[in-house]
Amino acid sequence: MSAPARTTRLHYGWIAAALTFATLLVAAGVRSAPGVMMVPLEAEFGWSRATISAAVSVNLILYGLMAPFAAAVMDRIGVRNTMALALAVLALGVAVTTAMTAPWHMVLLWGVVVGGGSGTIALVLGATVVSRWFDAYRGTVMGVLSAATATGQLIFLPQMAMAVEHWGWRAAVFIIAAAAAVMVPVVWLLMRDRPSDVGLWPVGATEAPPAPVRAGNPAVAAVLALKAGFGSKDFWLLAGTFYVCGLSTNGLIGTHLVPACFDHGIPEVKAAGLLAAMGVFDMVGTTLSGWLSDRWDSRKLLAWYYGLRGLSLIFLDWAFGPDVFGLWLFAVFYGLDWIATVPPTVKLAAAAFGREKAGVMFGWIFASHQVGAATAAFLAGWIRTDLGDYKLAFISAGIACLAASIMAMMIGRDTPAVAEGAAA
Fold first, then answer.
1. Residue 322: is its pLDDT beyond 90?
2. pLDDT at 214 over 70
């Protein structure tokens, strides 16, 4: 491919990144819905939180397990087609949940359909787009795309909470279904798979990227990548730390913070506002983390992130006291660290497995994140049902984060290339 002509126009990579951000934002809105739906579903149907949490756990597991296969599907049928199809499935699946009347309906619709659809456009989408469209600014762009989760909370959670309060949980569901439906034609018309589709090189590239190799069977490609990962110590460390990340974020706080606030007499709308406020600080923290991962050792960043998160979760149970200052202090402190782990984890995966395999390998690492999230979503619901509060769930997650902080410093210890890439 010859060098593209110099132009002062905006590089199309930034448009691809903006479309990816909007898609991840809508998916984040969908994933945040259980937090405001749990109490209304409990009241309307008499389902226990353990029962509802089981459906959320299925959603989170599929959300993670779809990631490596989604990366392979993107290589096979293209990023644009994958995004449009997943958004259409999300819109339909979410809308149909308004008709559910039994627990198995929620497991099937919210667990299987919505979990599978959202998993196809998870953070592995961001990792794939960044690796294809950017040679420069990778950490920063990945940080911004990761922050879409926080922005989705900020935009959708307060609106859904108000809709639940005034019109019921079904109105909240229709809000996110409509948002997913609107994005389908936008993605179809504007998204492109690779820079070569518009006659460009990646942003900041000084030479033409290698010609893309058409993927074979996506399932086979994903399984072969997992088999290769099993033989890598760094894969297990990255997957293990990211398991703890999922356990301590969207599985625990994302699913159970609003119900925990409700248990302490904090109204649902106010609790959702607190979670949304955490999203503001998360957006700042994750974007800054992307910038830092372009400059500092990613292993040290992860060690700090997990250590500080662990301390904040151990503190959380005391934050529910009569002085609301403690809860807001947690929101700021924890919010800055919510998903700041993503950019350095993506960078470490790329250093360990190379650009071509980065998407699929990060997909499997992300799958471990969601297994952790599903574990926390179910166990925290069970602990609340059995013991009457969430204290044990919060403290256990905090201790797991402290262990992950130690694991992070072991990544690349026996692999000089990974250690060099982590600090590059």
1. no
2. no
What pTM was estimated for this model as a whole?
0.71
More confident residue, 14 or 37: 14
What dotted CATH number matches 12-195+217-423?
1.20.1250.20
Task: Provide the residue type at 32 as one letter.
Answer: S
Tokens of 297: 């050792």
Taking all residues of the chain, what is their mean pLDDT, rounded to a whole number? 84
pLDDT band at 420 (very low <50, low <70, confident <90, very high): low
pLDDT of residue 5: 45
Q: Are 348 and 422 in contact (CB under 8 A)?
A: yes
Q: Report yes or no: 258 and 32 within 8 Å, Cβ to Cβ.
A: no
Domain boundaries, the chain: 12-195+217-423
Print the SS3 string covering 143-160: HHHHCHHHHHHHHHHHHH
Burial code (b: 16+ CB inside 10 Å, e: under 16) for 276-299 equals bbbbbbbbebbbbbbebbbebbbb
Give the pLDDT confidence score for residue 191 in this predicted structure.
95
Token pair listed for 66 = 């779809």
